[in-house]
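hey can u check if this looks right to u? its 244 residues, i copy pasted from the old doc so theres a chance i mangled smth
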Amino acid sequence: MGKVTVITSGKGGTGKSTVTAGLGAALVRRGNRVLIIDCDAGMRGIDLMLGVSGELVFDIADIVSGNCPPASAIYPCKTVPELFVLPAPSDVRNEISPYIMKQLAAVLKKYYDHILIDCPAGIGIGTEAAAAPADRAVLVANTEPLTVRGCDKVRRMLADLRIQEIRLVINRFNERNFRKLAAFEDLDAVIDKAGARLLGIVPEDSAAVGRAQKGLPIEGRYKAVYALDRIAARLDGTEVPLEL
């Protein structure tokens, strides 16, 4: 039975979807079969990052409406065997309810080691639906005050939904820019403000992000890939020391 992890953020632009795609590939490298469910209705992007956008016929809304069986709306990532994506609806009006998400995830997690749910940024019904079937949550934040404050608000919402395991990923970290901005004394202050235990730090890495934007797998000898591999190991239950 697969573990369901919702990946969310308090504000758009943190690189949440890139982290989701990267973690999916990293978990596959560890021998897992992984499904990414894109719940960002109207703003879907995981299909583009995994290079399957040209193949889309059905999405999650088609499963719910009975237009197709679940298997027809799940697409394999050709460049990363054992990584699959269930796309979000292209129309925000087809957003899925929390009750339906719970039912769907309960069926799908029988066939995967991990299900990662890419969640809309912020709080609202979309976030509630994406988080409904989750066993745990990963909050993605940068070190700008607005993203950290938003992260704290989402954490409170997740706690209200009774998700007990909530962890923090600091993404696109650039130490020089962090010191220059001087919005926080140190990274401990960022973590305290977000209100969640640190899962890992992904350094700023334009080359790795560029691969995702071109539909290429986030792999290779990149700083971000190294960080994502270590985060994936922790999600997979392996004890890996944090590197601050």
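The first strand starts at residue 3 and ends at 8.
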